[in-house]
Amino acid sequence: MMERMEFAEVVLPLPLNATFTYRVPETMAGRVTVGHRVVVPFGARKHYTGIVTALAVEPPKGVQVKEILSLLDDKPIVRHPQLKFWQWLSDYYMASLGDVYKAAIPAGLKVESETFLELNPDYDEALAQEGVEASLTDREQIVLHHLNQEGKMSVAAIVKATGFTAVPQIASRLLERGLVVVSEKIVERYTARKIAMVRPAFNARDPQALHAAFDATKGAPKQEQMLQTLLALSGALRPGVEAAQVTREALLEKTGMTSTILLALAKKGLVESYKKEVNRFAYDGTPVKEPPTLTPDQSRALDEIHRSFLDKQVTLLHGVTSSGKTELYMHLIKYVLDRGDQALMLVPEIALTTQLTKRLQRVFGSRVVIYHSKFTDNQRVDIWKRLLDGREPCVVIGARSALFLPFARLGLVIVDEEHESSYKQYDPSPRYNARDAAIVLATMHGAKTLLGSATPSVESYYKAKTGRWGLVEMTHRYGDAQLPDIEVVDLKRARLAGLAEGSLAKSTIDLASQALGRGEQAIFFLNRRGFAPMARCKACAYIPKCEHCDVSLTFHRRQNQLVCHYCGALYPVPTVCPQCHEPAIETVGYGTERVEAEVEQRFSQYRILRMDLDTTRSKDAYDNIIDDFSQHKADILVGTQMVTKGLDFAGVSVVAVLNADALINFPDFRSSERAFNMMSQVAGRAGRREGQQGRVVIQSYQPDNPILQFVKTHDYQGFYEHELGERQRYLYPPFARVIYIYLRHRDARTVDDAAAIHAQALAGKLGNRVFGPDEPAVSRVQSLYIRKIMVKLETEASPSRVKQILHEERMRLYRNPAFRSLLVHYDVDPQ
Length: 831
Known about the structure:
The protein is an alpha/beta fold. Strand 1 and strand 2 (20-24) form a beta hairpin. The radius of gyration is 32 Å and the shape is globular.
């Protein structure tokens, strides 16, 4: 009787919204299950790591089915809820399933194929052809010799072995003559962290063996002492107790001896060394057993959250800055861990994990797990495997990517600073909002979600106020600390009166000077990095722009170069204007680098730190800056929006917002909300301790702007009602759903034509819900011209039907030969 064949549906890390069918070979029958990693062929020569999403006994008709090449794991590395979550992300955000998989799995778990060279099996015949052997150069013969000796070699290995830099060209010529062939070798990126361990090489509980071991060390007191220490550390002499594992480092440290003594013991056969695979994130501190005691206001809020969770899946915690939301998070996490479940705490910036991790580790110790994109592939795989292999209660702290971890028993999701636009992934696909995705993930696990913020997003507060979500409010700061006094400085009037120089008004300088004189700290906030946002010719007003993007170049003084903040291209600063040929190039405007230099000049006796993208590129840079400022190793912090997000600095009494207008006047329906949130949050860094009165100064050329008045009076409720009225009047969220459609092409006329045709076709089916096309604020990036179409839907409209129409019309557009190289992507619920 013939055995039944098995087929697997496999998702690949490619921008394709489909799975592919592969035959399960007989050698793997019954071993391949949903969630397994498999290596499969794709195309002529490529191999990819795919994830099995389903099994079947019948292949699709009319399709040639290839066979799975390799099964990489004994058990699945992806759990069923994860696959369900991936599919939701793909459907809702109109992203390919392959892109979701690519974003979800650490690169270290994705095996790649790498090009290798080897001699052609018919090498002798190819060499025997007329004139081939005689035409070989010396270098070609040397490469062939190495391939003959080594077998398969990568191009990099050949370069290293021969010292030749032009190996690709040599290989190309050898390929043309049929002397070598390209082969594929599977490469695994992940390497586990292993530490050196030491153990006795004899049975220490056997008196005869123990006696013989010490006889062998007679006359060598250091060897005898090291052996005694090893037995003591391992507990190998204690009956009925399993011997503990001892690290080589611990043994050498305890004895104060060198590895030479250990080597001598090994040569006598008394000890043996081995490697042990360990997790990279062991916590060695001692946790406090209980979270901090709550104030009456915090206790009341905690009780209300628990009551809200009885009938609401999601609860919004609206607490003013420094009201003690983190203490509530700790109590909720403890409740979940004591129940045997896991918790996920999302933060908008990696910087926030530093302070939060230390606070949570003091309570939960090694049960705190950190996960974010600054970790190496190996570190991320270690964390993935820890969650996959264990079901022990733990709390994961991380940014967006932590959503994709393989949780076994997720009981609670906390989204801190839920209003933050950083939760939105922009590029590459999938363009998801981690806050909204977290709510869906929690629902799939049967878990509850708590959203926390001092300035909730308009949509979240609307859902809470209308009863869809629970709402708990905290209106007082922790320990009776007072909200800061906020002053708005009219920068135009100050300049006319000679009371402003550079980026700072005199009142700002005076306020900071007084605070610093009292031994307190100050923060200067400007949401623009670099030294100056543009260079300009004083003679003819020429402005250098990026060759690939439709933006002016930012001057970075440390690099002494002009930088495009969109594509990263670098340009030298022209000594003369390329247009009028005059030596008249100047830098215009302010970035954090220039503010740092100006503050350094004015406050030369104080220590200054800067926190922006340029100073935090390395993994530990965030931690170092935050730790140094927290420990008052610096007096002044200059930074971008990174300094606004939930950081707790006890010594800060003054905060200066240097350019409020740049935040308010951005052409986007969310600009008022972003400006209010950002200024309120950075203001909340001031005066966070009892007895300390914080002062905030906001510099603006529009001091009467209503947004600034709401910030000044700490009036979130007033801002919410004002903004809600604007949104309702012009039909924006929460009264409508918005989808942006972006079209990109290297030719401006082609993208114009495609956008016009696409918008017209969509309007034919969706009517006046379609707006545009138009040019976005930056209409060319990386040599691609960009056009935008907006689709605005009523909240009761069927999203799935609309997305089906969008997909159909995109496919229709692609069928036009003129638009085949067109790129189209969607931004669902833009932030």
